[in-house]
Specification:
single chain, 192 residues, alpha+beta, Peptide Deformylase, 5-stranded antiparallel sheet, two-stranded parallel ribbon, Peptide_deformylase
Length: 192
């Protein structure tokens, strides 16, 4: 089932999410719905807060970025061909490598894209959908997508990385999103 994506301004996007246990109600269906919602919205990642759940759960499919790359971009990133994965109860253990800028957008903040600087490598502890524990290091585009979604479960948004002047310039657009004065081709819910 395609779920509505919560728009900028919703309180759940600013909450630090809680760890969950294997008996979390309807978890397999929720994960299935998150994949369906992400793909229907043309996203490469989706975190539970974006569908109004304050739990430490996100899904990513960075392979889509590589599938849609121009020929001159091929082979540029170390994580090619990307990763499709579920992350539950993720916690960052280390950030390494150089910081680099990349143009990011967010399904909860439609029609705004900005360059964001992030580390090129992240080591995470998490469990998968079978609640098997992992500690794994990701790099390149995959690390960036993970860090973006990880921010959601920490109550952060990509616009938080922007300089104050840039945020001020975006205020009108952000207010329009909060008020539902935008059109998108996917299901959204706006703050009341």
């Amino acid at each position: 089932m395609i779920l509505p994506i919560v728009a900028y301004g919703a309180p759940v996007l600013r909450v630090v999410s809680k760890d969950i246990t294997p008996d979390y109600p309807g978890l397999p269906k929720l994960i299935e719905d998150m994949w369906e919602t992400m793909y229907a919205s043309n996203g490469v990642g989706l975190a539970a807060p974006q569908i109004n759940r304050d739990i430490r759960l996100f899904v990513i499919d960075s392979a889509q970025i590589f599938d849609n790359q121009d020929e001159d971009e091929k082979g540029k990133y170390p994580d090619e061909p990307g990763t499709k994965q579920v992350f539950i109860n993720a916690h960052i253990k280390a950030l390494n490598g150089k910081e680099w800028a990349y143009n990011e957008g967010c399904l909860s903040i439609p029609k705004i894209r900005e360059d964001v600087t992030r580390h090129e490598e992240v080591t995470l502890e998490y469990v998968d959908e079978q609640f098997v524990a992992h500690t794994k290091t990701f790099n390149g585009i995959t690390a960036r997508v993970i860090l973006h979604e990880y921010d959601h479960i920490e109550g952060k948004l990509f616009i938080d990385y922007l300089k104050p002047l840039k945020r001020k310039l975006l205020k009108g657009k952000l207010d329009d999103i909060t008020k539902g004065k935008i059109k998108v081709d996917y299901k959204m819910s706006f703050p009341k």
